[in-house]
């Protein structure tokens, strides 16, 4: 792996993204608007919004990164640029980490806008520090990226890649505690919930919400998500083949 | 003509799915030459080319490039590959595309601009690649390979759909690169390009039916042009069968 090539790759991916002005606008504005909508819906119940809004802050970059990574990488695969890159000094990890840096930056920008709106204008409240929320959101976004990288290997068209959203993303959103607390689900479903990385992102966020100081439990939960990032990234890198049929 | 082989292919067999695409082909390609790979579409040209750059899974046989097994690490700085469909980023400008590939090899933006000028795309440098015509995309893709000044340049049908003037310029460029010591392998299904090559490999149904210089090929078949020579060879083969 070469840090120089990794950063050149990240720069190229970011430039591709920035050339698409409409996508940049959607990335920055949509989560903030949806969170504002949720806040208005839960107008009478600010305590509930504190939970839901907080989870949404992490859920959006997770979904976004999954989607743009799987589509962008699919384009590299089908457009021939991946095959070309595999004949250059670019290593598989250079490419994967380049993606992580580029889209991690996009996730950070998205989270910054959404969090600013949620905390300052919508009155979202946590006992713990904002930076911890930010950190959890970025790591969760990276998990979305790594998952998108992995599943893009199983799609041959962009249409299929989009269909992977309800398969890989939606169940995690339903089971992570966003729409219903995990401990009030059917017993077997709690087991499933415990096996899904997004659940740990929500647990970590809940720790920040309830405790003024950063807790060991939060770090433990975040470590699980980070572990999932590493596993999915390695699996994703393994799907990049220098030689194909 | 220099005789050091830059590319050595020995008993190469490639299957795609269950279908054999290359049936035990062998050849040696000398350094500092332009070799034409000719054959109808579906004859295995792209598969042969992908085997040389090391992106094709092969069933058996070996491919050595500059003394290393095809596609191995030391070759990734020395071999450039231009795919049949332009492998460039549609959402980047011509300049950003070429500068990216240049940067991977530690080449400057200035060198990228020179490569863009070299393929006659200077006036379009700031256009998004997705908005270019087919021929312009091909030339951009070519610039991405030329900018790294490779020792071995493998081109899959690089002149399809190009203006005759630009085609002429590119062939002059290929000749100049070979004169400078580079080894070029160019696939084509246009016979009139064959005369610009030092040597021709005629591929049909996964086997080489000829491996000769254009002049010798004409002489051996007693024909005036290469199209006729190719036909002669095919008929002779079918007569044997």
UniProtKB/TrEMBL annotation, chain A:
<dbReference type="InterPro" id="IPR047817">
    <property type="entry name" value="ABC2_TM_bact-type"/>
</dbReference>
<comment type="similarity">
    <text>Belongs to the ABC-2 integral membrane protein family.</text>
</comment>
<keyword id="KW-0813">Transport</keyword>
<keyword id="KW-0812">Transmembrane</keyword>
<keyword id="KW-1133">Transmembrane helix</keyword>
<feature type="transmembrane region" description="Helical">
    <location>
        <begin position="21"/>
        <end position="42"/>
    </location>
</feature>
<dbReference type="InterPro" id="IPR000412">
    <property type="entry name" value="ABC_2_transport"/>
</dbReference>
<feature type="transmembrane region" description="Helical">
    <location>
        <begin position="54"/>
        <end position="74"/>
    </location>
</feature>
<dbReference type="Pfam" id="PF01061">
    <property type="entry name" value="ABC2_membrane"/>
</dbReference>
<dbReference type="InterPro" id="IPR051449">
    <property type="entry name" value="ABC-2_transporter_component"/>
</dbReference>
<feature type="transmembrane region" description="Helical">
    <location>
        <begin position="133"/>
        <end position="154"/>
    </location>
</feature>
<keyword id="KW-0046">Antibiotic resistance</keyword>
<protein>
    <recommendedName>
        <fullName>Transport permease protein</fullName>
    </recommendedName>
</protein>
<feature type="transmembrane region" description="Helical">
    <location>
        <begin position="161"/>
        <end position="180"/>
    </location>
</feature>
<keyword id="KW-1003">Cell membrane</keyword>
<feature type="transmembrane region" description="Helical">
    <location>
        <begin position="95"/>
        <end position="121"/>
    </location>
</feature>
<dbReference type="GO" id="GO:0046677">
    <property type="term" value="P:response to antibiotic"/>
</dbReference>
<feature type="transmembrane region" description="Helical">
    <location>
        <begin position="218"/>
        <end position="240"/>
    </location>
</feature>
<feature type="domain" description="ABC transmembrane type-2">
    <location>
        <begin position="11"/>
        <end position="243"/>
    </location>
</feature>
<dbReference type="GO" id="GO:0043190">
    <property type="term" value="C:ATP-binding cassette (ABC) transporter complex"/>
</dbReference>
<keyword id="KW-0472">Membrane</keyword>
<dbReference type="GO" id="GO:0140359">
    <property type="term" value="F:ABC-type transporter activity"/>
</dbReference>
UniProtKB/TrEMBL annotation, chain B:
<dbReference type="InterPro" id="IPR003439">
    <property type="entry name" value="ABC_transporter-like_ATP-bd"/>
</dbReference>
<protein>
    <submittedName>
        <fullName>ATP-binding cassette domain-containing protein</fullName>
    </submittedName>
</protein>
<dbReference type="GO" id="GO:0016887">
    <property type="term" value="F:ATP hydrolysis activity"/>
</dbReference>
<dbReference type="InterPro" id="IPR027417">
    <property type="entry name" value="P-loop_NTPase"/>
</dbReference>
<dbReference type="InterPro" id="IPR003593">
    <property type="entry name" value="AAA+_ATPase"/>
</dbReference>
<dbReference type="Pfam" id="PF00005">
    <property type="entry name" value="ABC_tran"/>
</dbReference>
<dbReference type="GO" id="GO:0005524">
    <property type="term" value="F:ATP binding"/>
</dbReference>
<keyword id="KW-0067">ATP-binding</keyword>
<keyword id="KW-0547">Nucleotide-binding</keyword>
<feature type="domain" description="ABC transporter">
    <location>
        <begin position="7"/>
        <end position="230"/>
    </location>
</feature>
């Amino acid at each position: 792996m070469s840090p120089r090539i990794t950063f050149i790759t990240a720069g190229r991916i970011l430039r591709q993204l920035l050339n698409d002005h409409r996508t940049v606008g959607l990335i920055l504005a949509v989560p903030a608007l949806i969170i504002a909508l949720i806040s208005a819906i839960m107008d009478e119940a600010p305590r509930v919004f504190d939970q839901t809004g907080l989870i949404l802050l992490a859920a959006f970059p997770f979904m976004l990164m999954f989607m743009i990574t799987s589509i962008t990488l699919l384009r590299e695969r089908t457009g021939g640029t991946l095959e070309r890159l595999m004949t250059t000094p670019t290593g598989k990890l250079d490419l994967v980490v380049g993606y992580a840096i580029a889209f991690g930056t996009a996730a950070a920008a998205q989270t910054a806008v959404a969090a600013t709106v949620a905390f300052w204008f919508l009155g979202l409240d946590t006992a713990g520090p904002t930076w911890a929320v930010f950190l959890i959101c970025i790591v969760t976004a990276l998990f979305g990226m790594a998952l998108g990288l992995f599943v893009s290997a199983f799609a041959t068209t962009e249409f299929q890649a989009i269909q992977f959203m309800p398969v890989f993303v939606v169940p995690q959103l339903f089971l992570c505690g966003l729409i219903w607390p995990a401990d009030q689900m059917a017993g077997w479903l709690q087991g499933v919930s415990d096996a899904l990385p997004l659940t740990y992102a929500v647990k970590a966020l809940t720790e920040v919400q309830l405790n003024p100081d950063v807790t060991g439990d939060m770090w433990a939960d975040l470590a699980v998500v980070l572990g999932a990032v590493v596993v999915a990234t390695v699996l994703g890198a393994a799907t990049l083949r220098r030689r194909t049929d | 003509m220099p005789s050091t082989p830059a590319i050595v292919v020995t008993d190469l067999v490639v299957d795609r799915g269950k279908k054999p695409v290359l049936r035990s082909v062998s050849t040696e390609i000398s350094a500092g030459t332009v070799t034409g790979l000719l054959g109808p579409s579906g004859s295995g040209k792209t598969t042969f080319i992908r085997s040389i750059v090391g992106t094709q899974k092969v069933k058996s046989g070996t491919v050595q490039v500059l003394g290393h097994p095809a596609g191995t690490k030391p070759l990734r700085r020395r071999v450039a590959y231009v795919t049949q469909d332009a492998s460039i980023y549609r959402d980047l400008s011509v300049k950003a595309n070429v500068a990216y590939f240049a940067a991977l090899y530690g080449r400057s933006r200035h060198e990228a601009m020179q490569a863009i000028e070299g393929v006659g795309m200077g006036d379009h440098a700031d256009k998004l690649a997705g908005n270019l015509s087919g021929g312009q995309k091909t030339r951009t893709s070519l610039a991405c390979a030329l900018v790294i000044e490779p020792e071995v340049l493998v081109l899959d049908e690089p002149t399809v759909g190009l203006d005759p003037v630009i085609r002429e310029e590119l062939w002059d460029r290929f000749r100049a690169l070979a004169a400078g010591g580079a080894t070029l392998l160019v696939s084509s299904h246009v016979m009139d390009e064959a005369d610009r090559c030092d040597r021709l490999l005629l591929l049909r149904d996964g086997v080489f039916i000829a491996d000769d210089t254009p002049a010798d090929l004409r002489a051996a078949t007693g024909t005036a042009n290469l199209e006729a020579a190719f036909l002669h060879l095919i008929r002779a083969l079918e007569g044997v069968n």
